[in-house]
Specification:
Layout lengths: L2 H6 L11 H15 L5 H12 L6 H11 L5 H13 L3 E5 L5 E5 L7 E5 L5 E4 L2 H13 L10 E4 L4 H10 L11
Parallel strand pairs: 3-5
Antiparallel strand pairs: 1-2, 3-4
The structure holds zinc ion (ZN) (2 copies).
Length: about 180
């Protein structure tokens, strides 16, 4: 590839929206196989997760779920998210602040993350060039990639918005994406 091609081509496009219908079918199949019951609370948690912004914590989900059904407990949300992770419907992410974050796992639309260490905003991008390079590197070592995480840490651009987000954070060092 020439230099001009490399510098002019757009990079880091936003990811495509996940295919929720397909994921619901994957979940149904997984729960049938494992003999897991679809309870009203589980359904509510799954729907809330599918409707939520990416990278939500258990606490974020619990707050939203309890606004609809105050009887739902932390442990039920926790176990449901574990179930979704094991079934390949959710990805559990850790961005260094101690909180587990969840996002929809969609193998047809993989993306990576930029994380602002000042305000905690998490930017998603999709980049075929990076994916292709990783495959070439793996091939060189006769290595089969099953999955990968590419996380870039640093500072975001908009300093006013960045400082406002930092000011809104509940506890120091808490990375909240409240966009
Ligand atoms: Zn993400
Ligand atoms: Zn920032």
């Amino acid at each position: 590839m020439s230099d001009s091609q490399a510098t002019n081509a757009p990079v880091g496009e936003p990811p495509k929206a996940p295919d929720l219908d397909r994921l619901r079918k994957t979940l149904d199949t997984y729960m049938n196989e494992k003999g897991l019951r679809t309870t009203e609370q589980r359904r509510l948690i799954v729907n809330t997760f599918f409707d939520s912004e990416a990278h939500c914590t258990i606490d974020d989900l619990l707050e939203k779920v309890r606004a609809i059904d105050p009887r739902v407990g932390y442990a039920t949300v926790y176990r449901t998210m574990k179930m979704l992770s094991e079934g390949g419907i959710a990805n559990e992410l850790h961005f260094g602040d101690g909180a587990a974050r969840y996002e929809i796992a969609d193998d047809t639309s993989h993306h990576d993350h930029l994380i602002c260490e000042t305000c905690g905003i998490i930017i998603e991008f999709e980049e075929p060039l990076i994916e292709e390079l990783q495959e070439r590197i793996a091939a060189k070592f006769d290595f089969t990639i099953t999955h990968h995480r590419h996380e870039l840490y640093g500072r975001c651009k908009d300093t006013v918005a960045c400082h406002a987000r930092r000011a809104k954070q509940r506890t120091p060092g808490d990375l909240s994406n409240k966009e």
